[in-house]
Write a structure and sequence with these properties.
Helices cover about 30% and strands about 20% of the residues. With about 260 residues, the chain is α+β, with helices and mostly antiparallel strands.
């Protein structure tokens, strides 16, 4: 039995109660790393969102922003919000949040033991093809680098990240009603502007490549959103989405895109 080495930071795994295979897989992986953790039951939106959550989301604003989130996507964001509320209510300084299909690497335990998470209010441990700043990076764990995230460019990837009490409190106070996915809360921009959002590359946590039928978010209504705005077979994005995309261009030009 491995010794539980990581005792200074709570680890929460967001998972639907009936996802037994995923729970078994990540339980084994974290156990082998000697990392103690706790499951957080996720909000289930696969068959529609429970009416009790409607006052915590804003479908109208979401649509005005150029997209339609599925109930499963809203449920995912609500699940992460539940963890933030837990962090705030228990006055937890820092916590690691994982989704149940995360694949922890051997370096994850070392990252936690060495307290590298204290360098930012939020640190992404999985960030596919992220745009990062060319300045402010530093090496850690021999072959990894910590980068500063760029403003205006979406922070994709809520599979694995550390979050501070201050960041969790900020999300609890400003992320409701929910209008964005879990990996891009509408209020995260404030953290990025203060250079308090970082990304680690190579990632300390992996994520499986799933076929559409395997993904719990596979039937996203964003597909419908695009279909509903096709004319003669051509997709036309909303004006707001085009403006938003153009506003990111300067940051992308001065930044660096990770593989």
């Amino acid at each position: 039995m491995p010794q539980l080495r990581v005792r200074t930071i709570p680890v929460f795994v967001v998972s639907l109660p009936d996802c037994t295979e995923r729970r078994e897989s990540i339980s084994k992986a974290l156990f082998n790393l000697g990392i103690k953790f706790e499951f957080i039951d996720a909000v289930d939106g696969r068959h529609g969102l429970d009416p009790q959550y409607e006052d915590q989301i804003d479908r109208t604003t979401t649509k005005q922003n150029g997209k339609i989130l599925s109930d499963a996507e809203f449920a995912c964001a609500l699940s992460h919000l539940t963890v933030y509320q837990r962090i705030v209510s228990e006055n937890i300084a820092y916590a690691l949040i994982l989704e149940d299909d995360a694949i922890p690497s051997l370096k994850l335990a070392e990252f936690l033991v060495e307290c590298y998470y204290r360098d930012a209010e939020l640190t992404q441990l999985y960030c596919p093809r992220a745009y990062v700043s060319r300045w402010g990076s530093y090496a850690l764990l021999q072959h990894h680098t910590s980068y500063v995230r760029l403003p205006r460019v979406p922070v994709v990837g809520a599979v694995a990240y550390t979050v501070s009490y201050r960041a969790a409190l900020h999300f609890v106070n400003h992320a409701v009603p929910i209008t964005k996915e879990a990996d891009w809360p509408r209020c995260i921009e404030a953290l990025i502007k203060n250079r308090q959002c970082r990304a680690i590359y190579p990632p300390l946590v992996g994520h499986p490549i799933r076929h559409p039928g395997q993904s719990l978010l596979a039937h996203s209504e964003r597909i419908y959103d695009k279909t509903s705005r096709r004319f003669f077979g051509v997709y036309f994005p909303t004006y707001r989405r085009m403006i938003e995309s153009w506003s990111r261009t300067p940051y992308k030009l001065i930044g660096k895109r990770l593989p």
